[in-house]
Design brief:
The structure holds two protein chains of two kinds. By secondary structure, chain A is mainly α. Chain A has three helices and no strands. Chain B has two domains: 97 residues, Orthogonal Bundle (Rna Polymerase Sigma Factor, Chain: A), CATH 1.10.1740.10; 81 residues, Winged helix-like DNA-binding domain superfamily/Winged helix DNA-binding domain (Arc Repressor Mutant, subunit A). Chain B has nine helices and no strands. Helix content of chain B is 68%, strand content 0%. The chains are: A mainly alpha, B mainly alpha.
Chain lengths: 88, 187
């Protein structure tokens, strides 16, 4: 048997109850990290750590290269000066 | 630091696991909520959430943005896995879980949730007896707070079709409440 259509108030009340019943839940604690380990995916903190490590690596690498360049320049200058003196 | 989703997606589709990790962090909770309400079981919800992301990670190279957001793609994977889960359960003839275990809702004190009313329990049971697409619709609308247009993209329907389905779902729920002589009292 076809029923009469409910009043707008009925529908509104049902929607209110639905919004109270279907609320977003908080996942169990540690779930995000636990699952990320299972999927073998790095967590946000690991990614952040890796990025900062890369930055540190670039700084160290850049420092070493600059130092070496300075040494080579000094050595070349020394040989140039010594070589000129010997030639005179 | 928040990256633009398109950039993260582009990196993830080249096999960058860090980028995929970023997507996982963004969507894991939402997918868990969806699966939790569809299965009514916290442990299976966890397991299925992990499988959704495993599948997404294996197939992300095939994901192309054709007007369908990445979230919609994830929900579709979740929907398919939940459908398989229900099919397996019905084959094994397991007793359906009627009562959703109580997890604390976001931003509220956990004790408040232990007070879930009988009406809410009854309503949850009714929702879980609805056809899957109607359950999807209600979960996306109320749990995820999505618009009809967003739900349409996930369900592959037009905005109008979603609106109409929503109205029919409310009427069906109202009828079921009448059948069971349940009166949802106002606050």
């Amino acid at each position: 048997m076809k029923r009469t259509s409910p009043s707008p108030e009925d529908i509104e009340s049902l929607e209110t109850h639905l919004s109270q019943t279907l609320q977003r839940v908080a996942p169990p604690s540690g779930m995000i990290q636990r699952l990320s380990g299972r999927i073998q995916m790095p967590t946000r903190s690991e990614i952040r750590l890796r990025i900062t490590d890369w930055r540190r690596l670039f700084v160290v690498f850049g420092g070493v290269m600059s130092g070496m360049l300075l040494l080579v320049t000094l050595a070349r200058a020394f040989y140039y000066l010594v070589g000129r003196r010997d030639a005179m | 630091m928040e990256y633009r989703e398109e950039d993260v997606l582009a990196r993830a589709s080249t096999g960058d696991r860090d980028a995929f990790g970023e997507l996982y962090e963004r969507y894991a909770e939402r997918i868990f909520n969806y699966v939790y309400y569809r299965t009514g079981n916290q442990h299976d919800a966890e397991d299925l959430t992990a499988r959704v992301f495993q599948r997404a990670m294996n197939h992300i190279k095939n994901y192309t943005d054709r007007g369908v957001p990445f979230s919609a793609w994830l929900y579709r994977i979740a929907h398919n896995l939940v459908a398989n889960w229900h099919r397996d359960r019905s084959r094994k003839q397991e007793i359906p879980i009627d009562d959703l275990p109580i997890l604390p809702t976001k931003g509220e004190h956990p004790e408040r949730n232990l007070m879930r009313s009988q009406e809410q329990d009854a309503l949850l049971r009714m929702i879980r007896k609805l056809p899957p697409e109607r359950q999807n619709l209600l979960i996306l609308k109320f749990v995820e707070d999505m618009s009809n247009a967003e739900i349409g993209k996930i369900m592959g329907r037009s905005e109008g079709a979603v609106k109409s389905l929503y109205h029919r779902t409310l009427l069906a729920l109202r009828d079921q409440l009448d059948d069971q002589h349940l009166n949802l009292e106002g606050e």
